[in-house]
Each structure stands twice: as structure tokens, then as C-alpha cells.
């Protein structure tokens, strides 16, 4: 299925053929049709996340792995103690707020700055009013009037096994650490039902020990995996290869782009 962002960046998503129909050329035909569709819309950049088994197939179709790296699926079990670690130089001016208090157009702008995906319609009232979604932002000052005021932000969604975290964008490692930690604490508080904050409801899994928070960590940021590991997260053994047609990535996800230093976990590129 093709997704076309407002800035003519394309994404190939949900590429699945029913098991009993596989190996008969349907996948090939489907993929060719998707590429033609993008071509007819003058799409300038096309990306996808490949499972390891399909990487060479996509390479045969002209896709090249991002030089920045892979997406690593990691998780954290809420029954483990949170390792708060040490903050060498805590900035006491930082304020943690509910993401709903950040103007949504700033989130859309920040997302675009980090990914090159223009998805203004996603980051709005409809998304954040969902009962399965909560988010946090770390501000450098009193309020958020421009993207530079936001030191970090993240979104967490409720899933049957617990929660799914992402994106995580941050200006620096300490802000990233604080926003991820705060999200873990918030999710845990909801599970244990001890938090008085009601931005989300309890997930569906009965046994609190069975809850996990999962995220797709952006290995293109050299500090991302290490940061999550230090907070007690571990790899689940699944990686995705981010690939770009003819090797042409969005500038934000190319060498020197903001994704290199500011993106720690992704939000499904397929959505938006
Ligand atoms: C990937 C998928 C959509 C391909 O559909 P399909 O109808 O079986 O594929 P086709 O018969 O048209 O073959 C398409 C190409 O995929 C390759 N391929 C298919 N299954 C493969 C496998 N299990 N491992 C490696 N290559 C495979 C074929 O060699 C072929 O390559 P070629 O045309 O360059 O020679 C299908 O296998 C599927 O739904 N898989 C599960 C979901 C999935 O992994 N999706 C991809 C996410 S990135």
C-alpha cells in the first residue's frame, strides 16, 4: 500500500500477500503497481522499512539501505525496576508537560524537521483525543511558541501487550533520557493504577507483569540504542532496514540531517 505525504515523499507500507497466494508473482506485480502510482504522482523520494528476508528483493528493485542504519525493535518490561541512572548536569528549568498543551502545528513542524515526512493532518486534535494515546513534552522555558522551545517529545499508544512508544525526538541525550524515563514512569503509573494523572486509561492486559513497552529505536542516531539499554530496555531480535529508492533519502534522514542526532525512536512511517 502506498502512502504519499503532503510534500510528495512516498512510503511503501503493509506489503503483504496471503500465505496461500505467495510465490506466484502477485507480490512483484503489486510492488510494480505501487512504484507506478508514485511515478504518476511525481513522487520524488520513496522509502520503506524492509524485513531482513526481503532486503535483497528490494535491492533488486532499486532500493538502497540508509547509510545511517537500521531500526532496532526494543522493549522494556514494566515489572522491572526503572534504572534512573545519573544525570550529570540536571537542568532544573526544564518543564515536563502533557503533549496536548503544545500547539499541534509545532509537533507537525518538529516531526517534519526530523523525518522529512509532512504529515500535518496526523498531529492534531483527532489523534490526541484518542483514549489509547498519551504524550509528553519537555520544554526549555515557560511555553512552546516555536519548535526550539521543545527539548524533547514523545507519544505513547496503548496496545494489547502494553504500550508502544514513539516517536522520541530530542535536542540532546539528557532530554531524550528524561522524556523516555517519564513515559516509562507514566505508563507504569497507569498500569498500577496509582497515578492521579488521567491522560490515559489502563491497558487491556490483566497481569501487570505481562506488560511491555516496545519501540522501534533509530540506530541512525549513534546514541539511541545505548540510551534505551541504559534504561533497561533490550532488543527483541527484530530489525528493519530503512531503504530509499535509488538511495535518495529525505534530507532530514540523510547524512548530516537532523535524524542523525535528534531522532531516537520512530513513529510508524506508514501512518500519516
Ligand atoms: C513479501 C511478499 C509480499 C512477497 O509476495 P509474493 O507474492 O510471495 O512475491 P512474488 O512471488 O511476487 O515474489 C516477489 C519477489 O520476492 C521474493 N521473495 C518472495 N518470498 C521470499 C522470501 N520468503 N524470501 C526471500 N525472497 C522472497 C521473490 O524471489 C521475488 O523476487 P524477484 O521477483 O526479484 O525474483 C510476501 O512474501 C509476504 O506477504 N510476506 C509476509 C509479509 C512481509 O514480510 N512483507 C514484507 C515486509 S517488508
Please supply descriptive tags for the structure shown above.
globular, eleven-stranded mixed sheet, 272 residues, alpha+beta, binds coenzyme A, single chain, Aminopeptidase, 7 helices
Structure commentary:
The chain is α+β, with helices and mostly antiparallel strands and 272 residues long. The chain has helices at residues 26-40, 55-60, 104-115, 125-128, 173-192, 224-230, 259-262, and strands at residues 2-4, 9-12, 45-51, 63-77, 95-98, 133-139, 150-159, 162-170, 212-218, 234-245, 263-265. Strands 1, 2, 3, 4, 5, 6, 7, 8, 9, 10 and 11 form an 11-stranded mixed sheet that branches. The model is unreliable at 194-202 (pLDDT under 50). Strand 7 and strand 8 (162-170) form a beta hairpin. The protein has a single domain, classed as Aminopeptidase (3-Layer(aba) Sandwich). The structure holds coenzyme A. Coenzyme A binds next to helix 1, strand 3 and helix 2. Coenzyme A (COA) is lined by residues 15-17, 22-28, 50-51, 53-54, 57, 60.
